[in-house]
Design brief:
Elements: E1 2-9, H1 12-22, E2 26-39, E3 49-56, E4 63-75, E5 78-88, H2 90-98, H3 109-117, E6 124-139, E7 142-151, E8 154-162, H4 166-179, E9 185-186, H5 191-197
Antiparallel strand pairs: 1-5, 1-8, 1-9, 2-3, 2-6, 3-4, 4-5, 6-7, 7-8
Length: 202
């Protein structure tokens, strides 16, 4: 179970202010490409699950991870989701982007689990995806991820922090934002849900 604090920033100005304030604590920046898959008969989505390939495009060589997510719930800015992830050879990942049916044959525990547990019999289909720039900061004993997520229909900004003590961490981040006059709101849906809705959250 992955547990994360998720706070949404209203616009680019708020996002840039957060990046500027946290700049002394920056450890790395990831350029991510996320692509999602379902079974040909919606076997995953019908049970609130999705399969994702994530490419880290600025790593050398590029890295690829395959991830199965299920039963995501977000309440008061805290997300809980069942997640299973492993690294996948990036060349194999690129082949699966071009032909999603190849996902059913790759040497991957996660892909095999998605196929067998959810009964995917007629192969996988691609759903599309989005890009994300993630700046990672080591701040006050926690790892903050500040995201700029670019969809075809617009851009979202979000602060995420994985923690076993989400309420305590959320309070710490909220205090930081309030002290610096930065507007924010609790995230209500996942990035994938926004992508599938085709519109930015209000």
């Amino acid at each position: 179970m992955e547990v994360e604090v998720k706070l949404r920033l209203p616009d680019s100005a708020a996002h840039q202010k957060v990046l500027s304030l946290l700049s002394p604590f920056l450890t790395k920046t990831h350029h991510q490409r996320n692509t999602f898959f379902d079974g040909a008969n919606r076997e995953l989505s019908s049970r609130r699950a999705v399969l994702r390939l994530r490419f880290y495009e600025n790593s050398q060589p590029p890295k690829c991870f395959i991830c199965l997510k299920a039963k995501a719930v977000i309440v008061d800015g805290i997300s809980r989701v069942e997640e299973d992830e492993e690294e996948l050879d990036s060349e194999v990942g690129l082949q699966c982007l071009e032909d999603p049916t190849k996902l059913g044959d790759v040497n991957s525990r996660v892909a095999k689990r998605a196929k067998e547990e959810f009964g995917v019999r007629e192969g996988f289909v691609g759903l599309g995806g989005f890009r994300n720039v993630r700046n990672v900061f080591e701040w006050n004993g926690v790892e903050l991820e500040v995201d700029e997520t670019v969809y075809d229909f617009g851009t979202c900004y979000e602060i995420e922090c994985e923690s076993s003590e989400p309420e305590k961490v959320k309070e710490k981040i909220e205090e930081f934002l309030k002290e610096n006059g930065i507007e924010y709101s609790y995230s209500k849906v996942s990035k994938f849900a926004i992508f599938r809705s085709g519109k930015l959250p209000q």
